[in-house]
User: What shape does this take?
Amino acid sequence: MPKAPLLPAATFPPLTWFHLAQREGAHVCRHENYVKQSLRNRVSLVNPQGPTTVTLPVHRRGASTRSVQDIVFTDAVHPELLLKVLRTNCGRAPFFEHYFPEIEDWAHRHLKAGQSWLDAAEASVQWACDTLGTPLPAPTSTYESGDGWDDWRPKARWNDVDTPRYPQVFEDRLGFVSGRSILDVIFHLGPEASSLPSRHGNHDVA
Assistant: This one.
């Protein structure tokens, strides 16, 4: 029997995250140590030059803890940190105007100094699941070692994650750029994002 996926909490993670989340027994880890320079606080997009990433600045609430539940945004965070990049690079996507006000609301509620990164990440995934029409995977209730799971918490597992092709605004000059944030997928496909097939087990999101 296949192992159930154990996923990291992440802010608008790639479509693959949501495909994995639909597998039986999938859980999101709320009880791990925070991993730097990973999809947890990085939103992968595309600009006219190629792949780009928006990093949402975070730090530990206390020096003695690395728990994801104690990670907060730094003074350098601001809603426009993400929103400006989205307007510039996704503004021509077919469904941008439809969904952007909801992302703007999320950013103004969560991207504030001292606010919980985990709350922001979970709210971003809740929005995406609602938009895709899929259930939210269950959170863990305790620390998990990873034994017995299909463990997707190591950041190396997300290197070169593939995504089925969908039309992108810069595709004429760049070709298709895979592995982008769920925001990129939804801005380009709208309701059809839920039918984009998985390349990790032939399991549709819908």
Q: What stands out?
A: The two ends are 22 Å apart (CA to CA). Helices lie at 15-21, 79-90, 96-110, 117-132, 171-174, 182-189.
